[in-house]
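Weekly structure sync - notes
Attendees: PM, LS, DV (DV joined late)
Agenda: review two folding runs queued last week.

Item 1: First target. Sequence and structure tokens pasted below for the record.
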Amino acid sequence: MKLIHLIGLTFLAVALFFFGCSQSESSTEQVEDRIPVEIKTIKLGDVIQSLDYNGDIEAEYEVKVFSKIPDRIEKFYVDDGDKVQKGDAIAEILAITIKQNVRGAEAALVAAKAQEANLQVEFERAQRLYRENAMSKQQFDAAKTQFEAIKAQVEQAEATLANSKSQLEDARITAPISGIIGKRYFDAGDMASPSLPLVTVVQMDWVKISFDVTELDLGKIKVGQQAVVQVKSYPNRSFTGKVSKISPVLDPLTRMAEVEVLIDNGDHLLKPGMFARVEVTTGIINDVVVVPRYTTIENTTLETIDGNEQVIKNYYVFVADSNRAEQRKLSVIYANHEYLAISSGIQVGEKLVTLGQNLLRDGAPVIIVNEEEQAQ
């Protein structure tokens, strides 16, 4: 903006020089007393109400993948940035002890089933003899107890084998969700730990930004409101999202609530970890007198209101009335970083000084060197 003003002032100076050269000696002195300015005609417009926040971009879903087995990593199947589908192999853990346990459990189950088969024959024989009164009840009960005990052993052996196989399956680490490998923290040969993630899997088709909102502004934020996001990586591009979540509670220490904005990121330009500026649109003031903020002269004063001293920001502009500048104090309904919505102080149709206002005083003579239509 400063560069634009410098160029504009240079243009005005050159214009004034040529204008002066075409006048007589007497009129030249009179023209030199005038200050060259640019103006725009005031019109009604719309002013967007918004709130600005900062936050870090995060993947919509990010899952840390751990190894349940504290053993050496035998092989990695993925690296940073690789796409994976749910169930795809990520890594293989060296599990020699678990493999031995599986083989031992399989052997124990075979032995238990063989013994079960033998005892089943004995039990069926005992049932026949007992029905024929050729075996006492005590002998029959003993045979029955042995058979039930071996069946329990078979079930225990089956459970042990299933548990060993499950542990062996845990040696093959798979993706819990479809997405992209955001970060791989180990290399093949490293020792895996159940407390440290091997990789993170992120879903980046949508990203989110979380930020804290003060108690004062919380009432202005609603789910579904549009948000404009900007990052330094793409200074000339804006990304559009919506408020997706508002925390139902405030932090009792900060008196702030967390708000989340969700952004469509189908092209994956926004990366988790990027710092972003978020502008949430909270409303629009329609058909109001609009003044570009760069045309104003701002100052602050300390005023006493209801017995309390408060810092008040005042806004002034200059209006070109005939050949003179008239200073106006504005009554501002709302101000954002670009425009001011005005209730009084300037009217539709008046000529607002947009360049050269910092050189003016109330009643100063001016010469208009350029006039543009008010554009928002």
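Item 2: Second target, run right after the first with the same settings.
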Amino acid sequence: MMEQVGKEADSRMKPRIMMTVPNLLTLIRLLAIPVLAYLIYAGESYQLLAFLLFLGIWLTDMLDGYIARRFNQITEFGKLFDPLVDKLFQLTTAVMMCAIGKLPVWVPLVMAGKELFMIVGSLVLLKRFDVVVHARWYGKLATVLFVLAFASLFILPREHIWLSHFIFIPPVFVSLFAYVCYGANFLRLRKKNQQRDLTGGNEF
């Protein structure tokens, strides 16, 4: 009996894969990321094509969010999978831009550290508390600022590449601010559940 209850709890904690239109668009974005990486690394002759694919991935991200809200196709899988693909999109772009000398190495390092914390934290919340982390306004703002900053690298002349040090200060600052806010929310949730356990409430 206890084993059956445990299995039912696990099934509730694991988001089911539903092939809705938004989830399909997210999958397409995932498949397009390696192509984008190749085009960025291929050289200046492919930069226009890389830029168009970059914009396409970003616009598709906004489109699947609109469709999910407009047609009530929001799923638990999409809530988890969509931001993971977005993180992979940004990190891949950062690493490849760094590889071709258009981005200082500190930017992908800061991004990788923050995203690693966010992924681990999200998985912990899902596993221990059955909570899916939703993007807050500060997380969305950081994403927009990063996308705009990356977009500028496609059109920034080589002789002005040094400006990338300053272009990425606003998105990195907002991203670190989001890091602190998500961390505070995690600690608040943990404290709340600890208090509930002490008062005899049901454990997550």
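Discussion on item 2: The chain has a mean pLDDT of 80.
Action: LS to circulate a short write-up before next sync.
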